[in-house]
Amino acid sequence: MHICFLGEIATATITTGGIGSFVANIIPELLQQGCTISVISYKKQAKPVEIENVAGYSIHWINTHQWGRLRFYKKMVDTNRVLKSIHRKQPIQIIDSPEAGFFMLHKISCVKYVARLHGGHIFFAHSTTDTPFSRKKAWIERRSLQKADAIIGVSKYVLATTAATYPFILMVPHEIIYNPIILDRFYATDPAKVVSGNLLFLGSLTEKKGIRQLIEALPIVLAKFPHVQLHVYGRDVAIRPSGKSFKALLEALIEQKHLVSSITLHPPLPNYEIPSVIESAEIVVLPSHMESQGLAFIEAMAMEKPLIAGSPGPVPEIITHHSNGLLCNPFDPTDIAEKICYMLSHKEKAIAMGEQARRDIKLGFGSQLLASRNIQFYYNLLK
What we know:
Elements: E1 2-6, H1 18-32, E2 36-43, E3 49-54, E4 57-63, H2 71-89, E5 94-97, E6 112-117, H3 121-127, H4 135-146, E7 150-153, H5 156-165, E8 174-176, E9 198-202, H6 211-224, E10 229-233, H7 246-256, E11 263-266, H8 274-280, E12 283-286, H9 295-302, E13 307-310, E14 326-328, H10 333-345, H11 347-364, H12 367-382
Parallel strand pairs: 1-2, 1-5, 2-4, 5-6, 6-7, 7-8, 9-10, 9-12, 10-11, 12-13, 13-14
Antiparallel strand pairs: 3-4
Helix pairs in contact: 1-12, 6-10
């Protein structure tokens, strides 16, 4: 089976969010199970199209900075041309893309188009405060999803929420398949490498990730545990619609609350460097306002980390409160602080939750298992 992924992919030189990590994580296992893989992705580069050969597959990079105001049209033309070229050399059976990816495509007969709901524009516009609704983006997303032959939701919540706006997606084959992680990469933590009092946040620096509320919670934690250090890893995201830096807002907040000596803002890390950072943390705190699934959650859980996560959305599908982690109200700094203090005060319970978390992730989120589920869904669709 020849599968073509359309959209982001994380590489050794490009750090992306959950979509790119999902593609990078699942490809090796799909190759191992006999699939042929191609990827079409986008970046700024010298040539209109560049081909990068990776171990066992190829990435076709399309330049997104061409033709000025007409660059969207140029991107559409190049994407269709590259797809047809790949298809001529070796026929594609499946094209797998996030919500809006099919808008620009001319459908190729005998190819099945699978829209994977990672959390599109409508999903986050309806559930967060920092994604302003756009009629244009909503129209593009609707037109794209109307072209899909099948739907995969990365959580029950994201499928149900998206279907509330686009009910037609339930008229085609659809299934819930969570995003996987590579369990060999996210190994059980060596207790000797844990730094006491280290709190870890991984994620984009944006309001919906809850990082502002986490910083506001820290003075309450420091009053009881003055040795605590918060390490934040993530890329800066511009505040919409102003375009101002969210990182600058956080730096001002840290200064205002006199937390400069207790909080360190680090640049984002490529996925292969994340395990060593997780391993050194005593507690991982990810108080997101909303996620479509939350890949960072399962990465931390796979490494037996005591985890505190925001309760809205699909998170309770993965985390059972006081069993494999703690759920918090991500809009309330006091509640976030209480959960952190609980973990720091009940170390044995925290360790037990981390151990249970790894057992749960091994059962349901390994790349081998979920690659097999994806392949079976594709085969059923082709039949």
